[in-house]
Amino acid sequence: MARSDPPRAISRLRHRPVARRDVDECFELLPPWLGVDQQQVAEIRQVWDWLIDEPSLLSGVIEDLALPPGRRIQASGVTLIVPQSLVRALDLDGQPRAFITRRIYSALRDGSFKPMTDREIGIENARGELTMMILHFSQRDHDITNPYVQDVITMANDTFRMFHDGFNLRAVYYETGEINDLVAVASGFIRRHYANPAELQVLPREHQPALFGLTREQAKGLLPGSPARNCFQNQPPLFTFSASQRRLLWFALFDDSDDALMPLLDVSVHGLKKLWRGIYERVEDRMPEFFGDSGSGDEGKRGPEKRRQVLAYVRQRPEELRPWFAG
Questions:
Q1: Considering the domain boundaries, does residue 93 fall inside one?
Q2: Hey, which of 44, 123, 160, 165 would disulfide with 227, CB 3.0 to 4.6 Å?
Q3: Assigned domain for 109 exists
Q4: Residue-wise over 14-40: b if at least 16 C-beta within 10 A, else e?
């Protein structure tokens, strides 16, 4: 009787926001196409000490809980919402110079570029003028013929939707490596060109940066389906939650236990209950029928059910998690 192959280990992949404890492990995955040396890596790491708390930063990891700590993170991605002044300075809408990500980190470090505030993001979001720059996405393994890598890429598409959908975007730009060109195109991005392509030739192909992007006008000509195209679907939020309420809802989508949420938000049990109460009141004010029978009775019993309904709603309507300041 022929011996069967041993069963493949079952992965336990999940995505979530980057936490401070993840930063060093994420930096092990910094891709070569950033074109940075060890000194520049150390400088970027210093930037992350404060950048991680900025509302303009969208950063996530894909981890495998079946692996031991220290080896769990299989991929990480970083997107920055950038103001129009930086779009113009870098010529993102035209033909920018290569190594965009490196130059953005340098500008953040020397203070020549300030991250956008929650209010600034909300104003541009409401006007439909928001621009995103995907600084880098990297994996431990890039062999797309490997079934495990395919699982990671599938999870990466889900992660992209979670972190990028719900904004009123004008454009998304993406600097990655030539080694990822097939994945970028399959995700719905269109290849763009650098102003200085000759400078790339000193690097092997797998270490060369590549630029992709998608604008609202380009997205209108594409059928919905790809992650990049889908992130241009949007509508105004109904509830316009406050920044602290949106932050609570965002983290609760990944772990809604009070013990996990309190340290992330730096609030007490009382403070957390107050935030949830404010969310429920906001929902009931804008949509009185939202909770149905769950809206009355013993709050100790109804509270968890209200939480479940709100989280289910914002998971389907991510615009409620995004800043929006109209007028």
A1: yes
A2: 160
A3: yes
A4: ebbbbeeebbebbeebbbebbbbeeeb
